[in-house]
Amino acid sequence: MDATAAPTVISALSGTSALTVWEFGALALAAGVVGFSKTAVSGANTISLAVFAAVLPARASTGVLLPILIVGDVLAVLTYRRHAHWPTLWRLFPAVGAGVAVGTVFLMFADDGTVRTSIGAILLLMAAVTVWRRRAAERAEAEDRAPAGAARLAAPSYGVLGGFTTMVANAGGPVMSMYLLSAGFKKLSFLGTSAWFFLIVNTSKVPFSVGLGLIDGPSLLLDAALALFVIPGALLGKACVNRINQRLFEQLVIGATVLGGLQLLLR
Question: For the segment 152-165, what is each residue's pLDDT rounded down to a tens digit?
Answer without folding.
Answer: 546 778 888 888 88
